[in-house]
Write a structure and sequence with these properties.
The chain is mainly beta. The chain contains 3 helices and 29 strands.
Length: about 400
């Protein structure tokens, strides 16, 4: 439950229902009515009725302040008819919403207070929340309705930094639902571009056909530095075929396995001893049928000229690709002469390009590069083992 901001005013006594206006007279009292036996029963609401500009995420609370009565039939709904859940105290005299109020929302409150001696009192009120002055947005991958490879993580990249103090609350409000049920964990990552990111990966590669849904109940949740999320987020995708690509650097081959059986193999030229290809399990980030390779764009200055190429498969954000490299045709299949990419003959590269899917795993083995790729340099969730990945969750332990 999120804390009530100190700026909210305490309840003040009034006859009948205590739904008083905010300081400055932004509204009048709420409405209530009672039946015989409910005399003396009073109920207060925080924030007060007709309060506007309430901080998003503020809970709504009802409390019997006078009389021997218990609350019943409490309902709180926003302008879209979405109901805010809540919990009744053990003595039945107070009710507090369990999820945060959304930004720019108008909440209608209704309740019944049943007196011990019979009879009851009903009441209603409204609360309006403010739009966030400093919203935090996020980029969500994969896209809704997409089909992804068996290594695809669910990834959320935040528009603004998220302090450690808020990361656990964010993870608590993110739910990954899978069918069939799949074990997985969130892990905190620093994106290659410098932003804060949190990724969810399954313990093992997804089973083909798995349905995955993410529900992020983030609207109104503080994200640090005076910011909060402006809305909820959701996405859903389906896992495609069990297809795994393996790059054997020392063997100068790339192979494709489907369902555990090799179905294709092609000659390659990978990174040289000076620029060895990054090892470990990578995930296909993107595919471009045509692209111009520029050494300056991957931190290599003028190491090579701008080279138009085709069938480009992105493995890292820093510039490790699989692509056609006919300019190296004389060494493809026999020597590693690239600046870290995996070069192929254009015909073979096109076949691999057409077969491989975004989110597919690409396992690079037998490379001279002993440095692990940074987790945020592409989708590096498969670089560490499972226990190490789980330890990156803000909810660990």
């Amino acid at each position: 439950m999120l804390p009530v901001p100190r700026a909210l005013l305490p309840l003040t006594a009034a006859a009948g229902l205590l739904l008083t206006s905010a300081c400055g007279g932004s509204g009048g009292s709420g409405s209530d009515s009672g039946t015989a036996g409910a005399e003396g029963v009073k109920v207060g609401m925080t924030p007060a009725d007709r309060t506007t500009g309430v901080a998003p995420g503020t809970p709504i609370t009802l409390k019997v302040t006078s009389g021997d009565a218990r609350l019943a039939d409490v309902t709180v709904t926003d302008q879209h008819g979405r109901r805010l859940d809540g919990r009744l105290s053990a003595d039945g005299r107070s009710w507090t919403s369990g999820s945060g109020t959304r930004p720019a929302g108008t909440y209608k409150v209704g309740y019944t207070a049943k007196a011990k001696g019979g009879g009851g009192r009903t009441g209603s009120g409204t609360v309006t929340t403010a739009a966030p002055e400093k919203p935090n947005k996020l980029e969500l991958v994969p896209g809704d309705g997409s089909t992804a490879g068996v290594a695809q993580p669910v990834s959320l990249l935040f528009d603004h930094p998220v302090p450690d103090a808020q990361k656990a609350d964010i993870e608590r409000n993110l739910r990954v639902e899978t069918s069939p049920r799949t074990e997985g964990s969130w892990g905190r990552v620093k994106d290659h571009g410098g932003g804060d990111r949190v990724d969810w990966r399954s313990k093992d590669f997804w089973k083909p056909g798995t349905k995955v849904k993410l529900k992020g109940d983030l609207a109104g949740l503080p994200s640090g530095q005076g910011r909060s999320f402006a809305r909820d987020y959701a996405t859903a995708f389906t896992v495609g075929e069990n297809r795994v690509v393996t790059v054997d650097v020392a063997g100068h081959r790339v192979s494709v396995a489907e369902g555990g059986e090799e179905v294709a193999s092609y000659p390659i030229s990978a990174g040289s001893d000076t620029y060895p290809t990054c090892g470990g399990t990578h995930v296909v980030l993107a595919k471009n049928a045509h692209e111009t390779m520029k050494s300056a764009s991957v931190g290599l200055g003028d190491a090579y000229p701008s080279l138009p190429t085709t069938s480009v498969v992105h493995l890292t954000s820093s510039g490790t690709f699989i692509h056609a490299a006919d300019w190296n045709a004389d060494v493809i299949g026999s020597a590693n002469k690239s600046h870290g990419c995996v070069g192929m003959l254009s015909g073979d590269a096109k076949k691999l390009f057409d077969r491989i899917r975004v989110g597919a795993p690409v396992v690079v083995k037998n490379t001279g590069n002993t440095e692990a790729t940074e987790l945020g340099n592409g989708f590096g969730a498969w670089q560490p083992d499972w226990p190490a990945w789980k330890a990156r969750s803000a909810l660990k332990g």
